[in-house]
Amino acid sequence: MLEVDKNNLLGIGNLSPIDVLDLTKPKAQTPQDRMQHFLSMVHDFCYHILGNTGPSFGRDLYQLQGLAPGLVASVFDNLEYIPDYRLRPIVRVFLKPFICSCPPAFYETVILPVLTHFYMFVRLSSKWQYITQLYDSGGIDDEQADTQVSCLKQHT
Q: Where are the transmembrane segments (predicted)?
């Protein structure tokens, strides 16, 4: 998980405003950090591009033969291995505009097969069941928020 994502999840903004173009302060990044940042940006940009195709192309996009199976095979392939914090861009940036710009005539042929493979209910139900089991066994107390976070990180 990138530091930026950790800070966003914790509600910590950029406490010290740093100018990105300021070359006087070199940023010490390892090659691994740069590669991780690059791959996460490619991941996000792909969903931005896919999310904008629905509003941009409109009816022409949804009429394409094999659109739903193609999306399921590419976008939702191995979705169970994507961590929870990376699912937010998929929902917010891709699914929301894709579904909102879909004409009602294509709900059954495009939207329904896509949403069938996006099994958020099953994923969330298993997480809540795991948390409930921890709570019932005494593994999580109401006052120990840090324990809840660490248990969730271990489970995912």
A: none
The full set of domain ranges for the chain reads 1-12+31-117, 119-156
Give me the pLDDT at residue 64, please: 92
> Alpha carbon 14 to chain centroid distance?
21
Whether the model clears a pTM of 0.70, i.e. scores above it, the answer is: no
DSSP for the chain reads --HHHHHHHHT---SS---TT-TTS-----HHHHHHHHHHHHHHHHHHHHHHHHHHHTHHHHTSTTHHHHHHHHTSTTGGGS-HHHHHHIIIIIIHHHHHTS-GGGIIIIIHHHHHH--HHHHHHHHHHHHHHHHHTTS--TT-HHHHHHHHHHH-
Cα separation, 114 vs 118, whole angstroms: 7
